[in-house]
User: Fold this.
Amino acid sequence: MHKKLLEYIAATITLQKKDMAPIEKYFEPVLYPKNRILEEAGKVPVYLYYIVSGYLRLFHYNENGDEVTTHINCPPGFFTSYFNFINQTRAEENVECITDCELLRITKEDLDQLTAESDVMKDFSIHVFQQSITYNENRSKELATLTAEQRYMNLITHYPDILHNVPVQYIASFLGMKPESLSRIRRKLMNEHK
Assistant:
């Protein structure tokens, strides 16, 4: 499992042999079944996860008790409630496995230790968090400016596998619409492409 993480890091930053052992030491491989809650709302997130395979989501319950999915992640990539993990504060969202997942996980304490020991990992961590901020800004902009259909088209253009691995109700919630609206959009697009 570590091989995929090392390849992911090496795609951004030059990794030397000496950089690899600490990464393998601190990232613990874990397997979880689908529907498992990894981090609970109301608690400080314990781990940052690297997704080797599988799909995760962040979700919370709104005032009506409905689930609201705020983030879905596809492999490869890192996943947690970032702000709360970094600041070690209570999260308002749950982290859940949508599918069976192969993950590598690291605690905040071990991540701090790893970045203190390795300049490469310090640089890479900054890169990951910058990506996260950029992603969240773009997502806010999309929700504010794009139509429901445009948001759906963007999603399937950039992450086509999501449709085969993530239930429609999670995708709809993530895109800020009701499942019925998403079904209508999908039917319309299918009819247009006949």
Notes: The longest strand covers residues 47-53.
